Amino acid sequence: MVSKLRFRIRRLLRKVWVPVVAYGLLGVATSLGAGFLRPVLPDGLAARIGANAVEAILTIIATSMLTVTTFSLSIMVTAFGAATTGATPRATALLKGDTTTQRVLATFIGAFLFALVGIIGLRTGIYGDEGRVLLFLVTLAVLAVIVISLMRWIAHLTDFGRLDDTIARVEEAASTALHARVEMPWFGGHKLTIAPSQTAHAVPAATIGYVQHVDAELLNDIAEELEARIWLQAQPGTFVHPAADLLRIEPFPDAPEMAAATVERLREAFTVAPGRTFEQDPRFGILALAEIASRALSPAVNDPGTGIDILGRLVRVLSIWEERPQTHVKYPRLWVPPIRAEDLVGDAFHAIARDGAGLVEVQIRLQKSLAAVAELAPDIFAAPALEQARAASALAAGALPLAEDRARVAALVEALEDRLASGRLKHALRSGKARV
């Protein structure tokens, strides 16, 4: 489980200005390092290796990098706009966090800053002949980095921001988050199977927004100090407000000052922001994929092929989910509710069933996708997949104009019912429940 500090550091390192500052510091370090190298560099070395031409080279770098950076930023903005209109606005966060784009832009902007620092140092005369040698050598290294970055950028632009690339990024984000939740389904705590104690003290949120991150380690440490138990109520992705509980804790300090301090410490374990993120929120990635499919199935776009492609990707994402027996509890004073299989299936397929109800090719692929999910993990997904299949068939019955198309969809539902009812889940399906 990632602590809140490491979570913030990891997000900070994704900012483009971090490597830019590093490049600017490189120019300053070059200027300062020139004085230390004077005693060890032979006289006349600057003239022999052509270091006197370094100012002209730096001028070219400064001019060209400013142009390339402006052009690259316009490409980024265009890619963000294409992702917003063609896929979903939720995917732009993944494009902004693209490491290749960040490193290339950082190289261009950083090289521009390095050239400016170098030119200023040369014009003010702080280098001397020995300093020019050092600056020349570093400039050659920067040129090599620029050439490599340009080649990577050209190759990257062939796919960056296109619909297939955006969908692949969302799928990868959803798969990564779901895999992380499989590894630690209850954040290292106990699985919450019953409601918390009625006498437990409720800690509400201080602000309105979505929970982006929960620091389970901090919560357990506080509970250890108080010799208390904590029941998590708001997982990542939950919309909270001052009337919604983040957690419940028992026992809780009676002294007003200590109680207020404890509430503030408990709230510090939660990162609440206006929007959701993909890292700890696997349902958000699944919803984003479904949203792309819904947009593709809208009358304005009319792209059922993308909707069918998303269905295959959703099956691939849901195939990651498994329910492992609890063998190790890292945070023994924390209880966390599990993700329900019904929620995962509903997030993935409900919107597609609704928006693709009038397209027989989408409905057929939807029924086959639900059958695949149910058969991949019958103990987990059989009941919710069958329920979703029946709901989708009902929507199709009211939207498909041809009776033969409605019959094809209904036949697929009946086939799924027969396959599942003939196996070991017969009793669970009849009762409408499966182990989740």
List the helices and strands and how they pair.
Blueprint lengths: L3 H10 L3 H21 L7 H5 L4 H33 L5 H5 L2 H26 L3 H30 L5 H21 L6 E2 L9 E4 L4 E6 L1 H11 L2 E4 L6 E2 L4 E6 L5 H13 L1 E4 L8 H16 L6 H15 L15 E3 L4 H15 L4 H17 L1 H22 L3 H19 L4 H5 L6
Parallel strand pairs: 1-8, 4-8
Antiparallel strand pairs: 2-6, 3-5, 3-7, 4-6
What does the model show?
The protein contains 17 helices and eight strands. The protein has helices at residues 4-13, 17-37, 45-49, 54-86, 92-96, 99-124, 128-157, 163-183, 216-226, 256-268, 282-297, 304-318, 341-355, 360-376, 378-399, 403-421, 426-430; strands spanning 190-191, 201-204, 209-214, 229-232, 239-240, 245-250, 270-273, 334-336. The protein has a five-stranded mixed sheet. The protein has a three-stranded antiparallel sheet with strand order 5-3-7. Residues 424-436 have low confidence and may be disordered.
